[in-house]
# Entry
Amino acid sequence: PAYTRVARLLSLAARLGRSVHRRRSPTVVSPCTACFRNLSRARRALATHPDLRQQVDATLAEEGFRCEPGAVRVRHLLDVLWEDFGPDAVRARVSRPLTGLRVAAYYGCLDVRDGGTRETRTAGFETRLEQLLEALGADVVDLPLRSHCCGGRSSEASVEVATSLVGRILRSAAERRADVIAVACPRCRHNLRCPVGTTPASVAMPSGVRVRYFTELMAEAFGLAP
# Structure
């Protein structure tokens, strides 16, 4: 069922994409690392496992869709900004540099899963957020735990998980006097922003470190209204 849901999305994207650009392969752009990984993994599995594809195709046929894993490219928003525009183009849009703002880049664990395959971890991806932040004029702070897990959805069910995984990331950023943690995944943003109200009162959580999705910082540097 999970593969069928993803295949339905990819099939719809292929159909809509072809209606707009008949000569170019459609692309699905995800602003979420978790969604990007799931779409990429499902696309790869459907393309390489005929039995799975046959089962999914049979289900989709009832809805007027067909399995087209190779017809759609899946990309992360950060990859699009980097590959299609680059840091120089970002820097050229900056009207209010984030000078003096100490920002730590946090990728989360998902971009280093699956052994670093091409679709889930583009070469050089692990430094792109830092370089993008530098283009915005921010003072980039090294965060050793930038690829450690934030707990994912398990943090919703376990105070212990939220405390141990999220707490150490926030403490690491606070120890390095970061003002902001910039994330590339809404799930990581949610977990890192919400632990204070869900952890036991006896556990000291660092305060003063804000957590923001990286496009929020881009908008601020571009001088856009909130």
In short: The longest strand covers residues 102-106. The chain has a mean pLDDT of 85. Residues 2-20 form the longest helix (19 residues). The CA atoms of residues 8 and 65 lie 7 Å apart.
